[in-house]
Amino acid sequence: MPEYCVTGGTGFIAAYLIKSLLLKGHIVRTTVRDPVSFADNAEKVGFLWELEGAKERLKILKADLLVEGSFDDAIQGVDGVFHTASPVLVPYDDNIQASFILLNPFYTLATSFLFRLSCINRGN
């Protein structure tokens, strides 16, 4: 069964992607900045565990766009990545740097597909 990574797992778009992938029977890895604090705050990720198939096929991993190498485990060996994570309210240069941090492992990994949502210019 194909396995996918969806970055920014607590986001609006990511939640629908995760739901759709799980309903199709796929294994899904998703990333959040701090899963430990989310464990104490069920409203942040609790809805993900309630999705059909989540208990069997969903993995929530820690990754931060501003920390180089933090996505390595999340994307290692997956069939595709849906990149929906975005640093919130950060300068344009940090957003670009975060994209490089996420994409850098793809130069060394043999990942079949990369689905990337463009950054939205918010006037920064």
What would you say this structure looks like, in words?
Helix content is 37%, strand content 19%. It has 124 residues and is an alpha/beta fold. The protein has a domain at 22-88 and 103-116. A 5-stranded parallel β-sheet has the order 3-2-1-4-5. Strand 4 (80-83), helix 6 and strand 5 form a beta-alpha-beta unit.
| Strand count | 5
Biggest β-sheet strands, sense, barrel? 5 strands, parallel
CA-based gyration radius: 14 Å
Poorly predicted parts: 110-124
Read across the widest sheet, the strand sequence of neighbours is: 3-2-1-4-5
Shape: globular
**Count of runs of 4 or more consecutive helical residues:** 6
**pLDDT averaged residue by residue:** 78
Secondary-structure class: alpha/beta
Order of helices and strands: EHEHHHEHEHE
List descriptors.
single chain, 124 residues, alpha/beta, five-stranded parallel β-sheet, 37% helix, globular
How do you describe this structure in short?
With 124 residues, the chain is of the alpha/beta class. The chain is built from six helices and five strands, in the order βαβαααβαβαβ.
SSE order and pairing:
Elements: E1 3-6, H1 12-23, E2 27-32, H2 35-40, H3 42-49, H4 54-57, E3 58-62, H5 72-75, E4 80-83, H6 92-103, E5 113-116
Parallel strand pairs: 1-2, 1-4, 2-3, 4-5
